Amino acid sequence: MGLRILxxxxxxxxxxxxxxxxxxxxxxxxADPPSDLYVTARTEFANGNYExxxxxxxxxxxSGHAPNPTECKVRLGLAYQRLKRxxxxxxxxxxxxxVPVEDLSPDAQMLTRNQQADAQWxxxxxxxxxxxxxxxxxxxxxxxxEYRKELFCxxxxxxxxxxxxxxxxxxxEYLDDYPGAVRSYLKAALGEHPDPTASIxxxxxxxxxxxxxxxxxxxxxxxxxxxxxxxxxLHDLARHGEFEALVARLxxxxxxxxxxxxxxxxRLEWEAAEAARLLALHxxxxxxxxxxxxxxxxxxxxxYYALGLSATKEAAMVLGEALFETRNAPYIMTLNxxxxxxxxxxxxxxxxxxxxxxxxxGYSSYAxxxxxxLEEGIDFRELPVEARLPRSQELERxxxxxxxxx
Length: 406
Fold this sequence. Notes:
- This protein is an all-alpha fold.
- The chain is 65% helix and 0% strand.
- The chain folds into three domains: 141 residues, Serine Threonine Protein Phosphatase 5, Tetratricopeptide repeat (Alpha Horseshoe); 87 residues, no CATH class; 126 residues, no CATH class.
- Helix 6 packs antiparallel against helix 7, helix 17 packs antiparallel against helix 18 and helix 17 packs parallel to helix 19.
């Protein structure tokens, strides 16, 4: 039986969807049932195809027969969040938080509460992306209390604690509460999660405001965090002009053999990444040392990274020469990335390369990650020149309190 539309009358969008899902026409295949759409939506979401995932989750929810309505709402909201459709994301995720759990079985309660915890964190990220810092702070507090995940794996617990403390610090910076931000960053840095970002941010804050000695006094104590102590040591090398020692850190690899544009490499090889960033702040002194390093046998990935961050004409020319000489595919990719980092000088070199050997720029259009530790659309506030930060005695008292679990 065909569909008959009366003159001047139109079916609503919802009715059309219901018709297409439930009423196969002659010679056509039946529409996928909600359960099949649900499976496909999960696959698309896992593969990062958020536009398609959102479309499918919307169809599943509109069908009225979603296999797991709360999960579908949360995944739809998170897909919107990743697509930067924050207003829609907040609306859908807030609806997921209103799903009652009291009448569910214990296992279903735990599953739903954890899905709601994901929804709450999606709201945190949307509030931050929209610059709504008071609301973001309120959402972060909810994430650590009412919507806290029930976790049984130590690593997952540490990650959740780090995430809350770190983003709380970032939010407090935007609210001009630098003492509070430092306390949150220190809580993250002293935790068990091996992410270096909180430690790096602490060092940057204390250095930018001329109070670096206060942080150094804390890490000189034997109980101080290994990562925080390591970051402070790297900054001290730069402050004292010991650039050869920083170049040597570019060769330090802990567990990975990847390249510096890869997210997991930036996280795990934080020492080499931070050394490269510090060297790039002193291009005149660093360039001769980096050129010498390229003549040595070994991994040059972070040397290229440091040159790219330098963003000078001379550094870009060195990268261009290295691109002409190498036949190593991972290095070609890293050199493309480094030249993109170099800004206008890198762009000029890439134009020259494109005329002679365009095949060497095969990765120039690749979507390299732009954020290593922060979600897309969220960034740190510009470092302050003046701010009152906790002094060494207060930092030590806070360290003791945190390590006691108080």
